[in-house]
Design goal:
The chain has 329 residues and is of the alpha+beta class. Helices cover 21% and strands 28% of the residues. The strands form four sheets. Strands 5, 6, 7, 8, 9, 12, 13, 16 and 17 form a nine-stranded mixed β-sheet that branches. A four-stranded antiparallel β-sheet has the order 1-4-2-3. The N terminus is likely disordered.
Length: 329
């Protein structure tokens, strides 16, 4: 490496073994150096701190057996979330991973305006060991849920398990099922929505259906109507890909946005009177009616199928029961 191409640090040389043929460069390095976060390693790769066969490479570069990887390891300050004694509902736990039923309103990891009360802060309090592959602010976090989406989320305790779970998500081997209440009544019993999703052209916090844009990625969502009401419907939703706001964007595009979804339906609360056609202003819901009901995957260590289900939260059950009473078609 030439001076100035990489951060100064400890120089290390590795030869790619046949077992790692085809691995992404960042995943390979994260496996070799588990005390360094994958985010940190990606930054070093992008900064020119890693070379493959004497040439710069990108984090997603696919390695071949026999190649030489040279890197300069530098450590960044590692500041994780401060542990907070926040109750958690554990659906499954072993020495390798834990599955949590995330409550609505809880942010998964620290971000601007949300430094406390996060899932990562609660995890840091309840569990001594969590993976570091997601970076210092995301210990254990393999995938995420929106703040106001409740339900099942999988957390890795070791970097090896984290990488194996991430590979299952990337290869679409994880089955995710959501419950959604929507405005409007689909005329089909079930359908597949296949529309690319990218950043919204005008609103930074939103995503949108965008074709032929540099931020767009293909996205597929299957839905099935489980109950019909006069002006609403309950859906079983199975996203085949995992794009940001995917279910919310796709259902809105199809003409039936998620109930109480401030960003995509324009409404932020639901009252009893709204559902029953009366003047009762009692608030029943103040967050999007979306719940990660079930997840099924292959356990990274045992190889056995692991399936976890989170019961419908009280607020969504109340709205559903109200619809069953007052909006039968």
């Amino acid at each position: 490496m030439t001076p100035g191409q990489q951060p100064a640090g400890e120089l290390r040389e590795l030869i790619v073994e046949p077992a790692h043929d085809g691995w992404r460069l960042d995943a390979f390095l994260a496996l070799q150096f588990p005390r360094y976060s994958r985010v940190h390693l990606r930054r070093q790769i992008s900064a020119g701190g890693v070379q493959v066969d004497a040439a710069r490479a990108k984090p997603a570069y696919r390695l071949r057996a026999g190649q030489q990887v040279v890197l300069s390891l530098t450590e960044l300050p590692r500041e994780g979330p401060a542990p907070e004694e926040i109750p958690l509902t554990v659906l499954y736990e072993d020495v390798h991973l834990v599955v949590i039923d995330k409550p609505p309103g809880m942010v998964v990891h620290p971000s601007k305006g949300h430094w406390q009360g996060t899932l990562t802060a609660a995890l840091a309090f309840h569990f001594q060991q969590l993976s570091s592959s997601g970076g210092p602010n995301r210990p254990g976090i393999v995938h995420r849920l929106d703040r106001d989406t409740s339900g099942v989320i999988v957390v890795a305790k070791t970097d090896e398990v984290h990488l194996a779970l991430a590979a299952q998500f990337e290869q679409r081997d994880v089955e995710k099922e959501y419950f959604a209440l929507v405005y409007g009544v689909p005329d089909r019993d079930r359908d597949m929505i296949e529309q690319p999703i990218g950043v919204h052209p005008h609103q930074r916090e939103k995503m949108a259906i965008r074709r032929d844009h540099e931020t767009s990625r293909e996205a597929t969502t299957f839905y099935e109507v489980t109950e019909r009401f006069a002006r609403h419907a309950a859906l079983r939703v199975l996203p085949k890909t995992g794009r940001t706001h995917q279910i919310r964007v796709h259902l809105c595009h199809a003409g039936f946005p998620v109930v109480c979804d401030r960003l995509y339906s324009g409404r932020s609360r639901v009252t009893r009177g709204e559902l029953l056609g009366t003047r009762d202003d009692t608030e029943l819901l103040a967050r999007q009616a979306l719940h990660a009901r079930r997840i099924a995957l292959r356990h990274p260590v045992t190889g056995l199928r692991l399936e976890c289900e989170a019961p419908l939260p009280v607020d969504l059950q109340l709205v559903l029961d109200t619809l069953r009473v007052g909006q039968r078609p």
